[in-house]
Each structure stands twice: as C-alpha cells, then as structure tokens.
Write a structure and sequence with these properties.
The protein is of the alpha/beta class. It has three helices and eight strands, in the order αβββαβαββββ. The strands form two sheets. It has a five-stranded mixed sheet, with no helix packed on it. Strands 1-3-6 form a three-stranded mixed sheet, with no helix packed on it. The longest helix is centred in the N-terminal third of the chain and has 13 residues. The protein binds cobalt (II) ion.
Length: about 150
C-alpha cells in the first residue's frame, strides 16, 4: 500500500495530468474566440486542442480555424494564409512558421489538433484564426509555462 502511494506521487510529479494537456476553445458568429489566453504546462509532451464553433453561419461566411505561431511570424502568416485560400482552409502548406493548425469549421462543427510542445517553452506565441479579416479580433496568447 505504501509503495503504491509512492508510485502515485512519483507519477504526479513526473507527468502533467492529461486534462491539463487538453485545451478547448469556442468560436462564434460574432467573430470571437472564447478566450484570449491558453496555457499549458511544459510537462505536456502532447497537447490536444479542440476548436468548436457555437454559431450558425456556414464556414464559407464565418469560418474559423486555429493557428499557432511565434507572435513575430503572425503578420506574414496572415498574408500567406489569405493567399492559400479556402481550398487549403487558409493554412499555408509546408510552412514551418505554422506550429500547429486545425481545419476550418462552420457553425455547429468542431475539429481538433494534437501537437508537441517541444521547443515552445519561453517563446512569445500567438494563436489566431486565419480566415481573411478575422485575425484582428480572433487572436490570443499561447503560453507554455514552467
Ligand atoms: Co474566424
């Protein structure tokens, strides 16, 4: 019994709770995300983010996705995303500045993406929707915390 307890403490100390590594963010017909900050502990080797769209408008009118990049890369990525177009979910292909990205969703839909936090701790990171014109309202800080 005592050894089992020690094992439990060890497990807690060495790995983040799975729930801490699962993020949820909602989006809506008012062109907004439900939060401006997402935080995960650095101990998450894999993060799974689920994007929901609680609005009613279709994705060709009010589509939302979720891209993660260094804050300094965001302005150029906004341009590249627009050029990539709806056929690519407004995600530039094979672009290393895109650290993670979901597909594009419309009202009532959801999507998720899993990605590694390796090398992301301490970086100035921003998440945003790359649907043309949305980034100004739909963006926030992504923090990988110690
Ligand atoms: Co959007």
């Amino acid at each position: 019994m005592k050894s089992l307890f020690s094992l439990m403490l060890l497990t807690l100390a060495c790995s983040a709770q799975a729930s801490e590594c699962e993020l949820n963010i909602d989006s809506n017909d008012q062109m907004r995300f439900s939060t401006a900050t997402l935080t995960v502990p650095v101990s998450c080797q894999k993060v799974t983010l689920t994007l929901t769209h609680s609005g009613k408008l279709p994705k060709n009118v009010m589509g939302h996705n979720w891209l993660l990049s260094k804050t300094e890369d965001m302005p150029a990525l906004v341009q590249a995303a627009s050029a990539a177009g709806p056929g690519n979910n407004y995600i530039p292909a094979d672009d290393k500045r895109v650290l993670a990205a979901t597909g594009l969703v419309g009202g009532g839909e959801s999507t998720s993406v899993s990605f590694s936090t390796e090398g992301l701790a301490g970086l100035d990171l921003t998440f945003f929707c790359s649907f043309p014109g949305h980034w100004a309202l739909m963006k926030g800080s992504f923090v990988v915390s110690d």
